[in-house]
């Protein structure tokens, strides 16, 4: 009887634990979206405790039933009770896993994912900044960058320890890889600090060595590296000077600095033709330049051909003689730089140079040769010629300075021509300023569009084109034609108001009075001309147009004139 009561109590305890567990699980599932991070963590802890209580009660019941199974031999009862024990345990575990999954997803998506990913991303970016630092960065600046990286790393580690347990399995694996990469990269960046410390020590040593020298009393202007313009003759001398100056200006021997300084010392045409910007090192650039401009045989041949192409000096021309002497000296200097003076010091070139001397100097040269042979019989003829030319250079310099030059006559300057015109603005394109057509730009009265404009528009066009208002032409002073002045009775009595008839503010009425025949005519000098006649006259010169008007016989004009005289006042 006591055993039965004990089993009943254990079943009641298990049932109570299951009920509390289910109630808490339902509450968490229903309201987890509205919980804070601390509440979710507490709910996770409580649901785990309640699940443990259910499992413990189930285990106690299973142990008590096992004792009764040993005393009783009922196999069917044993199997049924065993299934119930296992079902209860599995149901509790499945429900616990479901609730824990909901809590994990909520905590990770709402709180953990953003904070952890942000801290890792900031640490990774800081690591990239430090790794991309320039090689010659100062040690103090690098220390500051490392300190910032360490701060970011510390924050990332704390966030990882706090939130990684809530992340899904796949994302947790990715986060572990990112943290490992940060740790390894940080160790490499810290080891780079030793190189900067060594560079700073060397810099301090160099500064001490530099300050030990005497400080100059004057400051000289910095010297720029020589530039190569693509002249093959100057290539080897330019290369020698450039390498010497570049080594003094950049004693560190940086390959990158040497490359960019070399590119800056070349003309753009040379860089573009050889595509030198694609080269990786200065040595490769020099190799391409050597292939293009460094052929010593071709350079020597070019120097010799230039000497042979020089014309002979005729007459007494000190400047030409000085120029010849300096060209020979420059050629010998360039060939000495190439190590090929034999191209110049030979009988053929010596004979050619002797032939370029003026007649007066040839005689002195032959006397000089005769004297030198007596003193030094074995001396080379070219060396004697060079010595002779150098001795004559100073003499001809003085002769050129003492030479009396004829004064240059200054011709009187002609007075500046000024156009005195009333109309100065004309269309430079040869087209009319009103209609844009060519052929009558200086004669506005021929423009059909001008005739259709209003009086205000006509005046504006005249001001714009600079046309005379009396004859509607662009002309000089004194060339104005009065043939086309307005003859209207209303305009005659007003002084200072002469204007072309197309500018008349009181034009004749286009509609003739009743009882008169309708004729398209224009009044001019007491005669009538039809519009076709007037259009024809505008194409003629003013003199020819006036002659035509004088000989016109217009029946309409006589009819209107007679009618006008009869109906006079």
As for the number of domains, it is: 5
Number of E strands: 2
Low-confidence stretches at least 5 residues in length (pLDDT < 50)?
418-428, 509-526, 563-569
Note the total helix count.
21
From the N-terminal CA to the C-terminal CA, the straight-line distance is 161 Å
Average pLDDT taken over every residue: 76
Main beta sheet strand tally, sense and closure:
2 strands, antiparallel
Helix content: 55-70%
User: How are strands sequenced across the largest beta sheet?
Assistant: 1-2
Helix and strand composition category: mainly alpha
Percent in strands: under 5%
Encode the helix/strand succession as letters: HHHHHHHHHHHHHHHHHHEEHHH
- As a whole number of angstroms, the C-alpha radius of gyration is 56 Å
Envelope shape: flat
Précis, in short:
The protein has helices at 2-31, 37-71, 75-131, 139-163, 169-191, 193-211, 235-249, 255-264, 268-274, 282-293, 296-309, 318-338, 347-355, 359-375, 381-402, 448-452, 455-465, 489-492, 531-538, 542-551, 555-566; strands at 521-524, 527-530. It has 569 residues and is an all-alpha fold.
Describe this structure in words.
With 569 residues, this protein is mostly helical. The chain folds into 5 domains: 1-209; 232-294; 311-402, no CATH class; 444-510, no CATH class; 519-569, no CATH class. 64% of the residues lie in helices and 1% in strands. It contains 21 helices and 2 strands. It has helices spanning 2-31, 37-71, 75-131, 139-163, 169-191, 193-211, 235-249, 255-264, 268-274, 282-293, 296-309, 318-338, 347-355, 359-375, 381-402, 448-452, 455-465, 489-492, 531-538, 542-551, 555-566; strands at 521-524, 527-530.
């Amino acid at each position: 009887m006591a055993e039965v009561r004990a089993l009943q109590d254990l079943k009641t305890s298990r049932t109570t634990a299951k009920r509390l567990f289910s109630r808490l699980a339902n509450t968490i599932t229903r309201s987890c979206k509205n919980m804070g991070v601390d509440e979710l963590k507490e709910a996770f802890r409580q649901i785990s405790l309640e699940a443990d209580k259910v499992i413990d009660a189930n285990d106690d019941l299973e142990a008590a039933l096992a004792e009764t199974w040993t005393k009783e031999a009922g196999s069917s009862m044993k199997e049924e009770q065993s299934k119930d024990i296992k079902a209860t345990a599995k149901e509790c575990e499945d429900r616990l896993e479901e609730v824990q999954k909901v809590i994990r997803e909520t905590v990770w998506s709402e709180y953990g994912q953003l904070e952890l990913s942000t801290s890792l991303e900031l640490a990774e970016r800081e690591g990239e900044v430090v790794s991309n630092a320039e090689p010659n960065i100062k040690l103090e600046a690098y220390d500051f960058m490392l300190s910032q990286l360490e701060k970011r790393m510390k924050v990332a580690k704390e966030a990882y320890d706090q939130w990684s347990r809530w992340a899904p399995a796949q994302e947790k694996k990715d986060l572990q890889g990112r943290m490992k990469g940060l740790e390894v990269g940080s160790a490499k960046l810290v080891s780079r600090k030793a190189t900067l410390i060594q560079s700073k020590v060397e810099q301090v040593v160099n500064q001490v060595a530099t300050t030990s020298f005497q400080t100059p009393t004057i400051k000289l202007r910095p010297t720029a590296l020589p530039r190569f313009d693509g002249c093959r003759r100057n290539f080897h001398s330019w290369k020698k000077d450039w390498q010497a100056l570049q080594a003094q200006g950049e004693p560190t021997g940086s390959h990158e600095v040497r490359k960019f300084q070399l590119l800056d010392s070349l003309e753009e045409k040379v860089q573009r033709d050889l595509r030198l910007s694609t080269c990786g090192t200065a040595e490769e650039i020099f190799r391409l330049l050597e292939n293009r401009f460094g052929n010593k045989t071709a350079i020597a041949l070019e120097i010799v051909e230039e000497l042979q192409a020089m014309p002979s000096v005729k007459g007494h021309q000190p400047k030409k003689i000085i120029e010849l002497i300096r060209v020979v000296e420059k050629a010998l200097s360039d060939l000495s730089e190439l190590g090929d003076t034999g191209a110049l010091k030979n009988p053929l070139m010596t004979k050619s140079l002797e032939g370029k001397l003026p007649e007066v100097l040839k005689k002195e040269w032959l006397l000089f040769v005769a004297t030198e042979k007596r003193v030094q019989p074995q001396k080379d003829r070219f060396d004697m010629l060079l010595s002779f030319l150098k001795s004559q250079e100073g003499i001809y310099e003085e002769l050129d300075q003492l030479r009396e030059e004829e004064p240059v006559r200054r011709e009187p300057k002609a007075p500046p021509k000024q156009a005195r015109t009333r109309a100065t603005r004309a269309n430079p394109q040869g087209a009319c300023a009103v209609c844009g057509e060519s052929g009558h730009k200086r004669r506005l009265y021929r423009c059909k569009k001008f005739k259709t404009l209003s009086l205000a528009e006509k005046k504006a066009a005249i001001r714009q084109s600079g046309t005379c208002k009396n004859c509607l032409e662009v002309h000089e002073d004194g060339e104005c034609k009065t043939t086309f002045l307005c003859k209207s009775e209303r305009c005659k009595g007003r002084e200072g108001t002469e204007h072309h008839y197309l500018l008349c503010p009181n034009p004749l009425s286009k509609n003739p009075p009743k009882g008169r025949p309708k004729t398209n005519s224009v009044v001019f000098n007491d005669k009538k001309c039809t519009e076709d006649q007037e259009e024809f006259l505008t194409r003629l010169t003013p003199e020819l147009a006036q002659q035509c008007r004088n000989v016109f016989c217009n029946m309409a004009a006589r009819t209107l004139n007679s009618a006008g005289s009869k109906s006079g006042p």
